[in-house]
Amino acid sequence: MWRARRLAWGALAIALAVAAPAAAQQRLPRIWDIPFGTPIADLPGEFVDPSCGTNGGPAGQPLASFADFARCAPEASGLREVWFIYDDIREYIGLALRMPAIRSATTLLDQPVILSYLVDGDGRIAGLRVFTDPRADPDLRLAAHEVSLAFKARYDVGLEHCADQPAGAGETPIDGVYIKELCRLEAAGRRITIESRFFYKPGHQVVDPRTLRATDNEFESWARLEVLRAGPLPPPAARVPLAALPPGGDRRDAFLSGLSKDCPGCDLVGADLRRHDLAEANLAGANLEGAVLHRVNLRRANLEGATLRNANLNRANLGFANLKGADLSGALLYQAEASRADFSGTDLHNARMGRVNLALANLANANLDQVDLGEARLNDASLAGATLNGAFLPQAVMFRANLRGMVAERAVMVDVALRGANLSQARLRGSDLYGADLSGADLAAADFSGARLLGAKLADTSQMGTIFTGATMPDNTVHR
Asked: Are the C-beta atoms of residues 374 and 396 closer than 8 Å to each other?
């Protein structure tokens, strides 16, 4: 039954993958979308973390960039294998938006895969390899052989191109199914090889008949694809080296070409700067609306007064950065590192900042209305005078934070840790602080009218002039 169920879902996934619209492929290129002959150094930004390949094994020697392919040892064919992964940009967009179905992991049909290109001496792509990852969880890996169906569909490999291989000693079927197949096809200038395996290893079963317990990794289930160019590549085109801009050249061009980190006041709307090193860059007043700054290093950068509306700063390093008065409304900052950054007076309304690190950051007088700060770290941060109306902060950690005069009406602050925080004169009317820890906090003149404090900890708090009218107290009574 499980076998039929897996095959049914696998067939549906294959149909969806093969029928994916061209526009979607352009938005998210995959290993087979890059034509043979393309210089490995010209791969799009979705291909990251290059290393030397190990023919189906884990990453070998890390490479600073794809242009360093020559550091990998050549195989007998003279080609060099370069391992890589897909950028996780979409995965983090999904996390920031709390939509985990959006993924960009290095997978195929939900199976983790190992990807690599084979590169000739001129640095041009002459082949590719895709392996299902043998390190995957055994329950998931049990269906890894089905990835071969996707390989066959993509390259039009039929039954006539495939042959069953002889069974090895002691290899037995799983639930009556034994697969040991090799497919070969040469067409359209490509030599295609597809292999798949599915059987018990010699002497093993998925359930040990003696203990009746499941046995992990006692089976073979994998698929492998290799595609090589049949025949030589044409001579490489001459590459024009990037020259330094002449004196007085365009500052924006210098920045985008990597010749400069500074571009104050520049129009950089929608620029793709993912994973760039912009530490200590001067981007004051720049317009980066909708820019892709995923995993960018902006440590100690100057972004004062910059426009970053709807920009993607997931996993960015903003430590010690200056963002005074910047506009980050609607921006994504999931799991960004922003400790000691200055966000004073910044517009962050509707920003998605789950799991961000804002320890010791300055957010005084910032607009954080409707912000998502779930599980954020705000220890010792200052939010004095900030607004967080309708904000979402479940499980945020805000030990010793300065929240004096903060306005956070109708905010969700379930299980928030506010131990030792200063909430004097803060306004939290109608907010949900279920299970919040306010031990030792200063609540002088704070307004909790209509708030929910059920299960909250209020030990050792200063409550001089604190307003609890209509609030549900920790013992489930309503304060009059």
From this structure: yes
Selection from 452, 355, 436 nearest residue 403 by Cα: 436
Q: What is the DSSP string of 182-223?
A: EEEEEETTEEEEEEEEEEEPTT--SB-TTT--B-TT-EEEEE
Check: CB of residue 93 under 8 Å from CB of residue 314. yes
Please say whether the dihedral angle defined by the alpha carbons of residues 338, 375, 45 and 116, taken in this order, is positive or negative: positive
Measured in whole angstroms, how far is the alpha carbon of residue 332 from the centre of its chain? Answer: 12
Query: pLDDT tens digits, residue range 271-298?
Result: 999 999 999 999 999 999 999 999 999 9
What type of residue is 269? V
Question: What is the DSSP secondary-structure string of 259-305?
Answer: S-S--TT-B-TT-B-TT-B-TT-B-TT-B-TT-B-TT-B-TT-B-TT
On whether the CB atoms of residues 262 and 190 are closer than 8 A, the answer is: no
CB 82 within 8 A of CB 63: yes
| CB contact at 8 A, 289 and 269 | yes
Surface-to-core class of residue 17, CB atoms within 10 Å of its CB (0-12 exposed, 13-18 middle, 19+ buried)? middle
Most confident listed range (1-10, 180-189, 198-207): 180-189
Q: What is the pLDDT of residues 315-339, one digit of tens each?
A: 999 999 999 999 999 999 999 999 9
Phi-psi region of 293 (alpha: psi -120 to 50; beta: other; left: phi over 0): alpha
